[in-house]
Structures are given as C-alpha cells and as structure tokens.
Specification:
Layout lengths: L2 E9 L3 H17 L11 H16 L1 E3 L5 E3 L13 E3 L5 E6 L6 H9 L7 H16 L2 E9 L2 H28 L6 E7 L4 E4 L4 E10 L3 E6 L2 E2 L9 E6 L2 E6 L8 E9 L2 E12 L26 E5 L5 E4 L4 E10 L8 E6 L2 E2 L6 E5 L3 E6 L8 E9 L2 E12 L13 E6 L5 E7 L11 E8 L5 E3 L9 E5 L6 E9 L14 E2 L3 H9 L9 E3 L14 E8 L3 E7 L10 E8 L6 E2 L10 E5 L6 E10 L2 E5 L6 E2 L14 E6 L2 E5 L9 E10 L5 E3 L9 E4 L7 E10 L2 E2 L9 E2 L11 E8 L4 E6 L11 E10 L2 E2 L3 E2 L9 E4 L7 E10 L2 E2 L9 E2 L12 E6 L5 E7 L11 E8 L8 E2 L9 E5 L6 E10 L2 E5 L3 E5 L10 E4 L5 E6 L9 E5 L2 E2 L6 E6 L2 E6 L8 E7 L6 E6 L1 H15 ...
Parallel strand pairs: 5-32, 8-15, 17-24, 99-106
Antiparallel strand pairs: 1-6, 2-3, 4-5, 7-9, 9-13, 10-11, 10-14, 12-13, 14-15, 16-18, 18-22, 19-20, 19-23, 21-22, 23-24, 25-26, 26-29, 27-28, 27-30, 30-31, 33-34, 34-37, 35-36, 35-38, 38-39, 38-40, 41-42, 42-45, 43-44, 43-46, 46-47, 46-48, 49-50, 50-54, 51-52, 51-53, 51-55, 55-56, 55-57, 58-59, ...
Length: 1514
C-alpha cells in the first residue's frame, strides 16, 4: 500500500475529548483556513477565500514512488501586513488582529468581553457569531496511514459526505457572516404629512433600518436640501437610526412634497411626505366661543404677545473695535419659569457663541456683542424671539469700516478667508477682495499659513497671485492649519485678513467618518482573520482625471482613486506633456502626493499641456491614466462686466436706496461694491465693505441734505469689473410714503338716524402730514355682511365723523383710511357691529384725537379733542391715566387728582427710554365717562438734534421767540399756536420764517401775552417745542429790552490801580466793546482833569483799555477817581476811592518802589544771597547781580573779614553771567613755589592731601557780598550759623539720600555684602540698617560701614537665619529715605552659592603649591665650577617637586643631585658644569590646589674662549 498524506475533518461528539486535544487541533484548524474570517465585510471576498482553501485541499499529485500526495496551491506573495479592515469603498470599518492560535473559548471570551455601550446591531452580530462558535465542534488531524482499496472506497464516500456537510456549513456561515446580514434600507417609521401656519416650525421624523448603516438625504420637490448651506431654514439630525428634518419659519413657498431617501450598498429606499403651509388671513375678530388662533398656547392657556422695544439702530464700527447691539423684549403675559427662545442671525444665518460673538439674555434684554470687529461681521443682523405662540423679529444693518492703514495708499485687508477641498497634503484657500484697493490697483495677494498650536506664519507663495483662489500644497497629513491673506499694490502690503477656520489635512472620507462616527456593525469590533491576500497588489490606473482649475499661475488636477489598489494606501505621480510632443515628464518625482488633487505651478502661460496620473504603493507603480486632453494655461474665469446704471432712491434722512442692473457677463459672482461721492469732491467712499449679491442696497451713514452720486462695481475670483456709470445726484432726505392704517374705530355717539365715529390717527404718517380721512361702511345682519360703501367723498380733517342718513336699529361696520400727499393708506380693521340706536346714558363719551407733541426724555405733551357726546350736561374737565407699556390693565395710574379743564397736559417725571400708554376720560355733572382709546406706546426719548424755542432780544430791544429745525422737508411749515390753539389774533405776534428758522416777534409785549407758545413743523415726525411765558419772565425780558434800548457800556474790569516802577501809579479799566466815537472824561473829586505834568492819559480803542498815570502820590491826592464814558447812546461810569489807611498804605508802597528804583540805578542784587546744594553735593552760596560795570567792586567777607584775592577761599568764588557763587566745599591745593632748585621733596610731599568735606563746622559764619562803584552800592548777607547751618546740612542730607541707589548684593570669600552707592558721604549723615524691620546690632559677623561713596552691610559666614528683608534708612533732614532688598529665594541662593565658590577659591589660592623665592632669573657660571641652587617652596598639603631642563624632567643621579628638605626647600647641585649644562631650568611644584614653575636660565661660559675672541677682534 502506498502511503499518502491526507487532511481529514471529524466531528467531535464528546466535550471532554475536544478540550484535551483542542490546542493542537485548533492550530491546524486555523492554518488550513477551515475557520477563516474575512478581514473585509464584503461577503464575496470571504466566500472566495474559503473556496480557494477548499480547492487546495483537493489537489493531488503522484510522486516518483507512486504515492499520491496532496499538494497545496502556493500562497500569493504578500506585502507588509496591515491592521485596518476595509470594505470595497476603502472605508475603514474596524481593526484586524492577525491569526493567532487559541481555543474557541478564548475567542468567545474576547468577543463577549465587550463594553456595555455597543449598539443593538453589534450585539445581534456578536450573538450570532457566538452561536456559530458554540456549534462548530470541528477538529483537524494530520495522519500518515496505509489504506486498503476498501478503505479508500469507504473514505471516498465519507469524503463526499464531508463535502456535502461542508457546503451546508458554508451556507450557514454565509448567513452568520456580517456580509450576509446586509440588506437594503427600510423605513420602519415613515414621516407624516403636516399642515401648519406661516411662521411656525415643522419637523419631519422617520426611522430607517438597514445594514450597512444607510445615509439619509432630504429632497424638496426632487431638489436636494443642503441644510449646511441654509442653516437658518433647515436643520437635519441623525441619531440612532432616527432622522429628522426641521423647517424653520415656514412660509407659503415651503408648501411642497418632501422626500427622505436612504441609501447603502444594498440599494435605496425613499418615502414622501407633504407639507402644507397655510396663510393666516385678516378677517373678523374671533369671539370667545370661536376656535383659538394658531398662536394660542394650550400648555399655558394663553396667547403670548411679543413686543420688541429699545431697538438697535443701524450701527457703524471699525475693525478691531468691540460693538454691542441689543433690544428690550416684552413678552405678555408673564408666565413663571417660562422664557422665550432668543436667536441672533447675520444675513439670516443663526449665530453661535464664539471668540468673536457673545450673546446675552437677561430675561428682559437681548444683547449681541461682536468682539474685535472684522469686515466679515458686516451684514443684516436679526433678533428673532420665539415663543410658543409664534415669533417676532427685528433687523438692522451693521457696517464695519476698515481700520486706519499704517501706510497711506496701501490696500485694506481682504476678507472671508475660507478653506475648501481639503485633502491629505492639499487645500484650496479662497477669499474676497476688499472694497478699497488703495492709491493704486491691487497687484496680487500673499497667502500665509500657520500650524495650529504655533504662532509662526509661513508665506505659501513667493509671487503674488491675482486670482482670489489658491491651492496650498505641501501640508503634513493629520495636522491642522489656519490661513490668512494679504493684498499688495505698488505702495505696499495690507494688513492681514482675519484668520480662517482651522482645517485638518486628511482624506475627505476620513473626515466624513470622523463626523459621522464608525460604520462597522458595532463600534470598535475586533475581527479575527488572516492577512488579506490582496495586500501587495500593484494599484490600477486612476480614473476621471480632469482639470478643475486653470489660471495664469497654476493648473489644478483632480481624479478618482483606482478600483484595484489593495488595502494599502496609494500615492500618485503626475506627468505632463507639452502639446505637439510625445515626451511625458514626471512633475513630482521626488515626492509623490497622497491626495487625489494636485496643483501645477511654473507652467508657461499660453502653452497647451496634457496631463495624466499614475498610482504607486510598496508593490510598484501602476499604469498611467487616460490623459486629460489639451489644456491651455490661461485664466478660464473672466472679469465680470460692468453693472448697469445705478438708480438712487430716497429712503431716510441719512440713507439712500441704490438699485442697479446686474452684470450681464459674469461667472461665479462674489458680489457688488457700492461707492458714494459728495458732489463737488473727488473722494469716493465705500458704502459696503462686504460684497452683496443682490442688486439693491441701502447705503446708510450719509449726511442729511448733502448731494451724492453713486457707482457700483462687480467682483468675482478673477478681480474687479469696470465701475458702472455714475448715478444721478440725489439729495439725502427722508422719502415720503403713504401713512399707516388708522386704529381703534369706535362709536362716540348714537341717535336714531346718525352715529358719531372716532378713531386714532396712524402711528406713522409716512413723512408727511395727514391731510384727511375717508370712512367706509357696510351693513351687518347676523353672519352676513354687505359690501363696503364710501361715506364721504371729501377728506375729513378730524379724527371723528358724523355718519348720517342711517337706518334705526340696523347694525353697521365702519373702516377708515388715512391720506397724505403720497396717497391713501390701507383700511383700518373693521369696527365691531354698531347698532344705530339713540343713547340714553348721562355721562360724556370718550375724548378723541389723542396725540402727542414735544416728546422728551422726561416729559411729553398729550393733546385731545372733546367727546362728540357730552351726556346730559357739558363737559367740565378731564382726567388722564398713564401706564408703562409692559404693564397690564392693573398698571393704569392717574396723572393728576383734580380735573383738568384744558384739552392738553404736559406729563413730567417720565423715565428716559421707557414706553408709556395714555388715555383720557371726560367729566360732566353726571360723572366721569369711559376712557378714550389708548394712545401709545410712546417712548420717552428726546429725538437726536432736537432744539427748543429760545427767546431773543435784539439790539433795538425787540423781543422774539425763535425755533430752528434742521430736518425741513418739501412742504414743511412752521405752525405757531398759543395754549395749543391756533392763533387768531395776529396783532400780538408777527411771524417771520427764513429757511430752517422761524421767529415770532412780540409787537407790544404785555400781560395779554402770557401763556404757552408752541411751534410744530409739518411733514416731520412730530418735531415741536414750546415756551411758557410767565409774568416774572415777561418782566425780565422787558428789563433786558430796556437795557438794549438804553444801553450801558459794559466793562470787562472795573477801575483798578497798579503800582509801577519809580513809584508811579496807574489807574485803568477795560470795556468789552466800544466804537471809535467813544469819549472819556477823567474826573478827580468831581473835577475833570486834563493831561499835563501830573496826569498822563491813554485810551486804546482797539483793546478797550483806558489808563491814567501819576508820577507819585501826595497828600492832596486822597479822594475819588472816576472815568465817565459816552459812546453814542450808551454810557458807562467806573470809579475808585482812595482814602484813609488804604491811601496811606498805597503812598508808602509808592515811596518804597521809588527808592528801589533809585537803588537799581547803580550796581544791585537782583537775587539776594542764598544757598543751594547741587546733585554733586556741592554746597553753594549764590546771588544774582545786575547793572554792574567792569569797574564795579565786588567784595566777599566772612565774619566781617574780607576775603582777599590770595586767600584760599578766594579760589572758591566764581562769577558767570551776572551770577556769583561761593563753593564752600571746593578742594583747593596749595602749590608752593620751590625756591631751592634741585632739592628733593620727601615722598609724602608728592602725595596731595585728601579732599576736604563739602561742608564742615569751620565753614560756619556770616557771609556778605558788597557791590560798589561811583553810581552807588548794595549789600547782601547770609547767616551760615545755627539754624542756617542746619538748614544747609539738611538739604545736603536730602540730596545724598535721594542719590542713593537701590540696594545691591555681592559676595566675597568672607560672606555677603549688601551695598548702595551715593554721590557723596558726610560723616554726620545717619545711616541705619534693619533686618526684618528690626535694627541690626553691630557684631564681628555683621558689620555696617562706608567705603568712599558706598554704604555697605557685611554679613560674614552667612547662614539661613540671615535670609529675609533688609532695609537701609538714610536721614534726609526730615523723615528719611528707605531702600529695601529681599535677600530670599533666588537672590539668596545665587549670593550664597557665589560666597561658597569664592571661599573655596580663596582656600585653594592660599594652599596652592608655589615657588616663593630663592631662585635667580639668570645664572652665569664658569665652566668647571659647581652650581648649587635652592628654591623656597610653599603648599598645603606639601607639594610634589621636580626639576626640568629645557622642559624635560631631571632625575637625581651623580651629575644632578636633587633634594627636597623639610617640605620647604628644594635644591639642585650640578658639579663641574660644562657648556652642555646651559639651558632653561625650572623648579616645578604641584599639589591638589594647583601647579607652578619657577624658571631660571643657566649660562656656562669658558674664559679661554672669551680671550681668543678678543684677540681676534684686536
């Protein structure tokens, strides 16, 4: 029987037997791939691997000996193993652990040891896997047996049975394999169609099952919904197979069919739901039994009403600033623990808090703060307040101006830097061009990048790019980057833009996987598998190679990865070929790229190229892709064409609406920039710094009344278009529009055949006065209503109307329209059904026509008309109520207690910025009637630029009231009234109006004119003011008028007196204004004096100064001096009385001044003798002299002893520019004339004496200086004794203390020294040292002292106790100057370490080995003599000694005898020296502290040789 090797499979039926043989059987089981798990979740790969293993088992060959041998097919050559499990699309679905040998129990234990957070699908998969493991009881045996024929036949049959069993197991394995669990998506819960109202939010929900996990997309009418592009409208969520689409702020256009589509590798499923949005129509008001409107909140049982007040206006900011905007939100009614949702949006995109944006909701006020403004922050900001009854919004634009440029003419920063198409080593950066190019066009842009976590910015391009899109290559995979852009023109480079959001350099699929989470059956699943045989395959060719971008600067290629690439990552080589040639050149030979994108630079502009791509991995380089076809290097994107003509339209008094035609030829439009120019100037100012895409823009921030023209330019990535033609000029002022709707149509009186109606004027008049009203009516019978009919064909000028010719007991409804010069408004809400039936009530009806004037921060004037129905008696008064707008009905309060008989009232005491509501009730003898319709809310806020009426009295005494308005419009007029009634008596006032100013002139002011005068400007938003003329005010005005009629010359100063040089007296005054005809009379004691010897007069009419001079005052000059002025009809008088003690005191001063003048005619002291201490601590006595001549004698003396010229002190005297100084402490060296020549001075005489102190006791005394010549003399004295000496010393101490430096520290070998430097030190100066605020006692270890100008504290052998705060107090003549030093921490450690080092160095220096003496420098010795030298040596420890000759060490022998005795004496003896012994010798000593050599030279000579040399010379 021939032997054969056979692999058999047997079922093990006994559990114990399986455990005994499990390890060996399991080894063969895994190696034979009978239990093979695929690394991939793709079922075909798993089945193919299994069948391949089966075929290998069945292949057999015969050997030479005739034995049949089962031959296994060779395994494919494999590359480096990978541990990432991937599906067909190369999506990573888990980690793979290579095959290892273990029992099934170990495998089951690993699988069952999962965490609790696995998903439901993962748990099901594990359960099926465990079930398969428990039921697989197979084992493997390898035996060599000899078989008979019958045995062979039997085993063949068994093999057929085994094959059938294996097929069954294979089918079961397919079912248990996760690939078999794949199925197409299925909607478990379908989205339901919904019907909703406009303004509400709709949410569609669905639940989808399927494996792999399907991806959901939403469609509207078969158009894909991009929720990320429209976050303000749509929000999508996907959590745990539950998916939802939220549609916000629904409007009628959102009515559509919405489709949810689920897609995975097994297929696609979709489901459709219909959303219907209903529009709420105006109609009849709902009754109490009618269904609640869509705003009703069933949860709280109320309908929330939202009011937004204190609204932010159009705001302006500059880059780098912080801007806050906000509104006050009132939600009524107030529900405990309920708050509305407050959302801020920019250009309809919700804002989220970030480092640039901060939001705050206080419960009443919503605030948005923009930190460090950039142009990206410009846009329309919207506050949306969501309640459970609906929502309310308010919007206003925020403009961001460019920051000031550092260099005039450079462009401003680009904006909106974004990153796109990020890959492993590549990203596309885009930006928007700025509105202002500077003084010259922009030449290009520089792109900078910065790796996140660092602060280093690297420039990405060497040459500026003009295209606003640039591919950045060379990124490091896995790292995050931010980017910024700078613009360049001829002048320079702009500031950098705001940095972009961080982007990670990674494959898009990896990024999507990070966002979406793992896609394996359960997170982090461990799979057991062999290495995949596909690893190591040479990748195929890429597909879909296209040129996505082509500019003058670069070309960008994109392609799809190859299908055949194995599980190993691939990289790419790019090749180019110039058109017309067959030569392909590899572009990136040195560095293959990882991303399926590549940017090629340095291509010749205008040339055409073909491109292709090759893939590579560790197995090799694949085939080239199909080429792209010819591509010309040029800009594919053209500049946009110029926009159409702009048309400006008036909007408000500071804004203009500009519309224009869109650019006809434009691709990838970024937006438009609008610029404006004031007519007559050459400066164009950008209206927006962020491009807008619409063709309509509101330009804010313009000057009211100025004339502007506008132009527009388009921009795309290629650059700017040509500017549009300039628009027509437009004057900035508010546009006029139709008014708003009247409100509160009510019944005021009813009779059998007529009714009196009243209503409230519209809140907005459209910028023009309301010219009238039109009333419509219709009949009502039950639920049926008739058609509307006009009641009046002529406009009504009041807010009430008598509707006549009505039928008794018939119900009518009424509506009112308002009219101004722009047209007729929409109709008001219809009134309730009103019955034409005669009233029988006794009290009056409600007042009508409530309106306000003169709205200010703290007050407002409310006016009204009397009720149409008075009741049984006439109206005799009114009551006014007020409440804050946010308060409920219980908030009404009475403004006054007593009835007001006037039809107006000024309400004061309001809070600025608060909104109020007013109502009025009428009263007659029967009682108080119903309140009027509420007026408001009215915000108590003074309008910017509001001016008040002021009273003016002209030079002729005419009294008038003046009111100015800077916001006049076409048709605006000034309307004056008295007590808020039209003035009928024109004899009292004359009205003169000129442009924006109106003057009401009183013809004959009297008590008849008392009252409140008001002025209102028509066609404005209620601009008005009033002035109340009281009896007291009238009297004051009449007095002023009298003064103007009979004027008095005003004096700036009343008459005054000055004492001049020589004792002269000057009487003077100054008038505020006078004419050239003004005359002055000078009067003394009622007698007019004239100019002569005693009096000198002067009147300067240009300055208004009047003067009179007297040379001296005598006894007869006591009395009253007066100036009488006459200037036309104006007169003025001013006087000065000089009598008694005042006159005598003035006379003495005059005599003194005359004496001083006499003194100063000769040499004199300008400043008398005083002292000073310089910063160098020189003590000086100084004085200033004047009027001196060369012959003037100047003499110094001390203690009445004259200082002669040859005295030592004479050298201390200096004179410079009229200033004499005496330097007390100057060091004077006496130089004696040596009469005896040749005599040597003693050494001590050559040394100059030490410098003397700056000042000492012997310097005390009385110093005097005398001046004298033929014109006169003067003297000055300074007492430098006692108090004077002490004052000088204190000043010296102050200068010294101030000059002291901060305490410094140094170390020596003995310890630590603290010291301070001063300019100079005096022995009397008190200096104290403190340690930890305690005075330091002197000791041997701690000493203080002075060396030169250094104040020091020495701490010998310092210890830890010496650490702490040290202070030095220097007496400065008063409190003292303190210097402190903290000898702790690092200062202590460094000082103590330096002390220890110096101490060790000193010890080493003292004990260092050295030669201290005994050796000569040169030794000359005769040949044959003996040389004996001894050197003195020192060192501790005793040094080692050696002798050297010519740098070679000598050894003691018969010739050289070397000795070292007593550790101090080293000797060398050379007997019978010869010339060979000449040389350089050294005694070298050395110990552990150092080494030293004592060198000397030995010269051996022969006398005979010397004699022979002399003979030869002779």
């Amino acid at each position: 029987m021939s032997g054969s090797i056979q692999v058999t499979r047997k079922q093990q039926h006994h559990l114990q037997q399986r455990h005994l043989q499990q390890q060996r059987q399991q080894q063969h089981h895994f190696e034979s791939s009978c239990y093979l798990s695929s690394k991939s979740s793709v079922s075909q790969q798993s089945v193919a691997a299994y069948k391949t293993s089966s075929r290998r088992l069945k292949t057999s060959v015969k050997t030479e000996t005739g034995q049949e041998v089962v031959k296994l097919s060779p395994l494919p050559k494999r590359a480096k193993r990978t541990y990432l499990a991937m599906d067909k699309d190369k999506e990573v679905i888990g980690y793979v652990i290579p095959v290892f040998r273990a029992s099934h129990d170990d495998v089951r234990g690993l699988i069952e040891a999962r965490e609790d957070d696995v998903t439901e699908e993962g748990i099901n998969y594990v359960a099926m896997r465990n079930l398969f493991v428990r039921e697989s009881k197979e084992a493997m045996q390898v035996k060599v047996v000899k078989k008979t024929r019958s045995t062979h036949i039997r085993e063949s049959a068994e093999r057929v049975e085994l094959t059938r069993t294996m097929d069954e197991w294979s089918e079961f394995r397919k079912k248990m394999n996760p690939d078999s669990l794949m199925h197409r998506p299925e909607f478990i819960v379908k989205p339901r169609g919904q019907t909703t109202w406009e303004g509400k939010t709709v949410k569609l929900h669905c639940t989808v099952a399927g494996w792999p996990k399907p991806r959901i997309a939403w469609y509207k009418n078969n158009v894909l919904i991009d929720a990320k592009a429209h976050p303000e409208k749509y929000t999508t969520e996907s959590n745990y197979n539950m998916h939802s689409l939220e549609i916000k702020n629904c409007d009628f256009l959102d009515t559509a069919k919405y489709q949810a589509s689920a897609l995975n590798v097994k297929g696609e499923s979709s489901i459709v739901a219909t959303v219907v949005v209903k529009r709420f129509q105006d109609g009849e008001e709902a009754g109490p039994l009618d269904p609640k409107p869509h705003g009703y909140c069933a949860e709280h049982g109320v309908t929330f009403e939202t009011t937004i007040i204190d609204k932010f206006e159009v705001a302006f900011g500059s880059e780098g600033e912080t801007l806050s905007i906000g509104c006050t939100v009132i939600v009524y009614p107030t529900v405990k623990k309920y708050q509305p949702e407050v959302v801020w949006c920019r250009n309809s995109v919700p804002l989220k808090p970030s480092k640039w944006v901060r939001t705050h909701w206080s419960g009443e006020r919503a605030t948005l703060t923009l930190v460090h403004l950039n142009k990206e922050d410009e846009g329309m900001y919207t506050l949306r307040v969501n309640t459970k009854s609906g929502f309310d919004t308010y919007s206003a634009y925020v403009f961001v101006r460019d920051a000031e440029v550092e260099v005039e003419g450079v462009p401003v920063a680009p904006l909106d830097v974004r990153c796109h198409d990020a890959n492993k080593d590549y990203v596309v950066v885009t930006w928007k061009q700025p509105a202002v190019e500077g003084s010259s066009p922009i030449l290009g842009y520089y792109i900078d990048r910065c790796e996140v976590g660092t602060h280093h910015w690297a420039q990405c391009n060497d040459n500026p790019v003009k295209y606003a899109r640039f591919p950045v290559t060379g990124l490091v995979e896995g790292r995050s980057y931010t980017f910024r852009v700078r613009a360049l023109n001829k002048v320079g480079v702009s500031r950098a833009s705001r940095v972009s959001e961080a982007v990670v350099a990674m494959d898009p699929s990896d990024r999507a996987r990070l966002r979406a989470g793992p896609s394996a059956p359960w997170t982090g699943m461990i799979k057991f598998t062999e290495e995949d045989p596909t690893v190591g395959i040479v990748p195929g060719e890429p597909s879909d190679v296209v040129v996505t971008e082509a500019t003058k600067s670069y070309v960008v290629l994109a392609w799809q990865p190859p299908v055949q690439r194995g599980h190993e990552g691939v990289m790419y080589y790019i090749e180019k070929c110039m058109s017309g040639t067959d030569t392909w050149q590899r572009v990136n030979t040195g560095m293959p790229v990882k991303s399926p994108r590549f940017a090629l630079f340095d291509l010749a502009e205008g040339n055409s190229y073909n491109f292709r791509v090759r893939c590579c991995n560790s197995a090799g380089v694949g085939e080239a892709s199909v080429s792209t076809g010819e591509t010309t290097v040029a800009d594919k994107l053209d500049l946009p064409s110029a926009p159409g003509n702009p048309v400006p339209i008036r909007n408000t008094d500071t804004s203009v609406v500009v519309t224009w035609g869109a650019s006809k030829e434009v691709t990838q439009l970024v937006g438009y920039y609008i610029e404006c120019n004031v007519v007559g100037t050459d400066v164009w100012i950008p209206c927006n710094n962020k491009p807008v895409k619409q063709t309509r823009f509101v330009c804010h921030g313009l000057t009211t009344g100025a004339n502007y023209v506008f132009k527009v330019k388009a921009v795309n990535a290629a650059g700017y278009s040509q500017c549009s033609p300039n628009s027509d000029a437009v004057v900035v002022q508010a546009a006029i529009s139709v008014p708003g709707k009247p409100t509160s149509v009510s019944l005021l009186e009813a009779v059998k055949d007529y009714m009196v109606l009243g209503w409230t004027a519209p809140a907005k008049n459209g910028g023009a006065d309301i010219r009238g009203y039109f009333v419509d009516y219709r009949t009502v019978k039950g639920a049926a209503v008739g058609k509307w009919h006009e009641m009046n064909h002529q406009a009504l000028t009041t807010t009430s109307f008598k509707a006549e010719n009505l039928k008794e007991n018939v119900f009518y409804q009424f509506q009112v329209r308002a009219m101004n010069m722009a047209g007729v408004s929409k109709a008001s809400l219809p009134s309730a059904g009103l019955e034409c039936k005669e009233w029988t009530i006794t009290v009056p009806g409600a007042p009508v026509g409530l309106h306000v004037l003169e709205v200010r921060d703290t007050s407002v004037v409310v006016l009204w008309e009397p009720p149409a129905f008075n009741g049984r008696s006439a109206v005799n008064g009114y009551y006014m109520d007020i409440k804050e707008a946010s308060a409920g009905d219980e908030g009404w309060k009475a403004v006054h207690e007593k009835a007001n008989k006037m039809k107006y009232m000024k309400v004061a005491g309001l809070k600025a910025g608060t909104s109020y509501v007013f109502r009025v009730r009428a009263q007659n003898l029967a009682g108080v009637g119903k309140p009027s319709a509420a007026l408001g809310p009215i915000v108590a806020q003074t309008r910017p630029g509001t001016k008040e009426i002021y009273v003016d009295v002209d030079d002729d005494g005419v009294i008038s009231m003046v009111f100015e308005c800077s916001e006049m419009k076409e048709g605006s007029e000034f309307v004056w009234s008295k007590n808020y009634k039209a003035m009928t008596d024109t004899s009292r006032l004359t009205i003169v109006t000129e442009k924006g100013k109106s003057r009401a002139i009183f013809n004959s002011p009297s008590l008849e004119d008392l009252g409140t005068f008001s002025c209102m400007v028509t066609n404005t938003d209620g601009i008005s003011s009033s002035y109340t003329l009281t009896e007291e005010g009238l009297k004051r005005l009449l007095d002023i008028s009298h003064e103007h009629k009979f004027p008095v010359i005003p004096f700036k100063n009343e008459m005054a007196m000055d004492l001049l040089e020589k004792g002269r007296v000057r009487f003077w005054t100054q008038v505020e204004k006078c004419t050239s005809a003004c005359q002055v009379d000078y009067v003394f004691n009622d007698v007019i004096v004239s100019q002569g010897k005693k009096y000198t007069m002067n009147f300067d009419k240009t300055t208004g100064i009047i003067e009179m001079f007297m040379d001296s005052l005598e006894v007869i000059d006591e009395g009253t001096f007066t100036f009488n002025l006459v200037d036309g009809k104006a007169k003025g008088t001013t006087s000065l009385v000089l009598i008694g003690d005042e006159f005598r005191e003035l006379q003495k001063k005059s005599e003194f001044e005359r004496a001083e003048w006499v003194r100063k005619q000769g040499p004199h002291f300008v400043e008398y003798l005083s002292y000073a201490v310089t910063s160098e601590c020189n003590v000086l006595l100084k004085c200033k002299i004047g009027n001196v001549r060369p012959e003037t004698e100047i003499t110094w003396s001390k203690d009445s002893i004259e200082i002669a010229d040859d005295d030592e002190d004479a050298q201390k005297i200096e004179r410079q520019d009229g200033e004499l100084t005496f330097n007390i402490g100057k060091w004077v060296i006496k130089q004696e004339i040596q009469k005896e020549k040749g005599r040597k001075k003693a050494p001590a005489e050559d040394v100059p004496p030490p410098p003397r102190p700056k000042i000492c006791k012997k310097d005390a005394g009385i110093y005097e200086v005398f001046l004298k010549d033929d014109r006169g003399k003067d003297r000055s004295t300074f007492n430098l004794t006692d108090a004077g000496y002490q004052a000088v010393m204190n000043e010296l101490f102050r200068v010294i203390a101030t000059s002291s430096s901060e305490i410094k520290v140094t170390s020596t070998e003995h310890g630590i020294i603290l010291y301070s430097e001063v300019t100079y030190y005096d022995e009397d100066l008190r200096v104290g040292w403190l340690h930890k605020d305690a005075k330091i006692a002197a000791s041997e270890r701690v000493k203080s002292g002075v060396t030169g100008e250094q104040l020091w504290l020495k701490i010998n052998e310092p210890t830890e106790k010496d650490k702490g705060k040290y202070s030095m107090d220097i007496f400065d003549g008063k409190d003292g100057v303190k210097r402190a030093f903290e000898l702790t921490g690092k200062a202590w450690e460094e000082a103590f370490e330096e002390f220890q080092r110096l101490k060790a160095a000193a010890i080493a220096e003292r004990n260092r080995a050295r030669v201290v003496g005994g050796l000569p420098d040169v030794v000359a010795i005769q040949e044959g003599k003996s040389l004996n030298l001894t050197g003195n040596v020192w060192g501790e420890p005793v040094p080692e000694v050696c002798w050297t000759k010519n740098d070679k060490e000598l050894v003691s022998d018969e010739r050289y005898k070397l000795k070292f005795e007593a550790g101090k004496f080293a000797s060398i003896t050379i007997s019978s020296v010869s010339t060979a012994d000449s040389g350089k010798y050294a005694l070298v000593v050395k110990n552990k502290y150092g080494k030293e050599a004592g060198e000397f030279t030995v010269s051996v000579y022969n006398p005979d040789d010397d004699e022979n040399k002399e003979e030869k010379k002779g």
